[in-house]
């Protein structure tokens, strides 16, 4: 079974891997929370949305482990909460 140290190591390795690949959008806060932009595909039934979103990984407190995905505000703005 994984422990708390394993989860911090996994997050550190995850961010490090993508930074090495040239993805500089990762921001790691002193608390361990991490934000980055990513292409996200959401599928339901026969429909899907595929667009860029901001991902927020919560790594502390009551919501530890929660992943929040929000629309990324870019000029095209095709990924909108109204579509859900």
What's the structural blueprint in terms of helices and strands?
Blueprint lengths: L3 H17 L6 E2 L5 E11 L2 E11 L9 E5 L13
Antiparallel strand pairs: 1-2, 2-3, 3-4
DSSP summary, beta strand count: 4
User: Structural class, judged by helices and strands?
Assistant: alpha+beta
Mean pLDDT: 77
Could you name the ranges where pLDDT drops below 50 across 5 or more consecutive residues?
A: 77-84
How would you characterize the overall build of this protein?
It contains one helix and four strands, in the order αββββ. The protein is 20% helix and 35% strand. The N and C termini lie far apart (36 Å). The protein is of the alpha+beta class and 84 residues long. It has one domain. A four-stranded antiparallel β-sheet has the order 1-2-3-4, with no helix packed on it. It is globular.
